[in-house]
Records
---
Amino acid sequence: MIERLLVPVDGSDPADAALTFTFEEYPDAEITILSVVDPTDIGHGAVNAAPSTLDRLQQRAEERTERVLDEAEARAEKHGVTVHRETVVGVPSRAIVDWADENDVDNIVIGSHGREGVSRVLLGSVAETVVRRSPVPVTVVR
């Protein structure tokens, strides 16, 4: 029986589809929405960047993460579902798997890119890695 679900969100259409699926199929489950701040997306790899630039990039990433979580939470409320919010910093696929491993989760529901081609393109690299490494079952929504 699925009681605790983890749904990674990033504001993309595939993540939105995963949310909708979760709200419709598991309205009584304990749902955690997880947003991952990827340091490689906010310029931490830029060796020559000024500290003030990195601070602005970090602040923008954190603000975007909060917007994504706010939007997901608002969608949950429209479905009459309560969610828990979590934010972590890290490489998305690893952070998702680690969070699931460290918390009592029955299933991960993740969005797929839905493109044609090999599995990495079909699932998207994050979803594909989560499927391969997850300590719990993963539902991929297209």
Note: The two ends are 23 Å apart (CA to CA).
---
Amino acid sequence: MLLENIRLALTALKANRLRTFLTMLGIIIGLASMVMIMSIGNAMNNYVNNQMGSLGANNMYLYVYIRDVDLDGNEINYETARGLKESDYFSKEIMEDISQKYTDKIEGISLSVNIGNAKIQKGKEYANIAISGMNPQAIKSTNLKMIAGNKIATADYSRGSKVCLVSDRYVNAIFGGDANKALGETVEANISNKYYTYTIVGVYQYEETTNDKLAKSPKDITTTCYIPIKAAVMQNPSLANYIQEITLVGREGIDPTQTAAEIAKYVNERYYKTNDTYRVEYTSMKQQAESLQQILGAVKMAFMAVGAISLLVGGIGVMNIMIVSIVERTREIGTRKALGATNGYIRLQFITESMVVCLLGGAIGIVLGILLGQIASTLVGASGMPTVSGILGCLLFSMGFGVFFGYYPANRAAKLNPIDALRYE
């Protein structure tokens, strides 16, 4: 009986192809929107995971921040709180203590200091750089891809040698793209009327960011010039005394958020217990990724709700056209009932027809949504596909729409009086 009803439904739909297509259009648009949103949402999640992974999935961050209340329990006003003193920052003693106590949970402490930004000029050519002093752990966490020369040697870190790594963007601007020519050359920067000179020992591949697309030209993009942190501190001794944030590189298998909370508690109890204004707070890359994914999930659900409204409008269109179809086929219904068709058979026939319309529209919408989602995901810069369960869910949702919006017209057709139906003109 079901196959016979499907055959009758397809025959009826073929007889009014344009009307059938226009009826399906609302379903197509609604489901295409939902599938495309699922694709984009998954692409964004993949993008976030990739970015967080490249920055260090097990990274943890400790930073000095204003207390909520002082030692007497009084609420601290953020606007009137005293500024940071040298004793409030992370000291060498604190960092060495963390490294020794938690050696089973962290690989090391990633340290970096920023000297400043500079514009390097060579004739008419120029490049913008930000000079950053880093320790070996910090350089390792950046996952630099070297295209010429070598990374900074261990001996250079310990001696504080004036060597540096520059980007291929810098080489393109200053050396015409010849990375080997850049090796051994110097970077001379003037920052706040103080001159810094470093010898280039390696060239790394620069990874473009979203903000870089706003730059007028590639030369206007600021890339990092990496130097040993000891070299930076030797030239600016005060930098060693003003470290407000440190990055801990966690070992495999730990829970970064839980470990960061444990270390922050230890540091607060031992070193900041008597500090009247500041304490150590924490976060982790995992925590940041989860927060960002929650936001993306909320945005995704909001857009899917808009797609669901389009689908609802399409469903109402299906119900409307089914009512019109029943009015046009009143005599046919009367004939079927006169020949012995039961109310249940008539009801099932038109519900099946409504489901076929919704399923065909749903199938077209899903295919269209996947294609549009792939295009949008490419623009985002990450791959994303709707899950199999999501696609099946959309199909079942579409079929449910067919039953829901087809029931009223089908029930109306089933209740027609066969004598009145046969007399209908």
Note: The mean pLDDT is 81.
---
Amino acid sequence: MNHYNIAKEEMAFYGGDCTSLQNLLAIIIGPKATSEVTGKLASLGIRELATLSKEDLLKFDGVGELTATRITTAFELGKQLLSYKNKDVEIIRSPEDAAKLFEDLSIHNQEHFVAIYLNTKNHVLKKKTITIGSLNASIVHPREVYSEAIKIGAASVVVAHNHPSGDTYPSREDIDVTRRLSEAGKIMGIDLLDHIVIGQGNFTSLKEKGYC
């Protein structure tokens, strides 16, 4: 029995939640899947694998055009599903509401800093990625966050970034950035409602911690 058939049997018996990443990849690739190829890809971990482009995948021995296309398409479908699930969150009433809109940050293995802009009734107007990279006050400057708010007439802002480690405990840099944005927002009359740190299935609200 080839790798593909073994993987299908595992999924049929145990369900998708209990099927290994290597065997899920074998099912996506199809009957030509080999344990060598799926093993190499699975060793990267799902978060890193999700960030790879088709060109990146083609650099692996044994990965052809069709295989690379199938894998990137599968991850794109997952991203779109996550986005679709959160479209019903149009008003932010709590940190939980805000965190749902930033769930997609959990897939990244590099820090992404993102802002959501709201009107006076806390309806979502726009979501924008501000910067990608390690978070510090020199990279996340208030003008980068609030210039967009002024442009679209937003009344308030919620920002978030991910911790690739999965630990959402706020760092000193997280706190410094939050206080700087909060102070700038007060001067400009645009409230910083919260700063959410996203982990793996969990989050921390810096508003609830008293930092904004």
Note: Residues 7 and 20 are 9 Å apart (CA to CA).
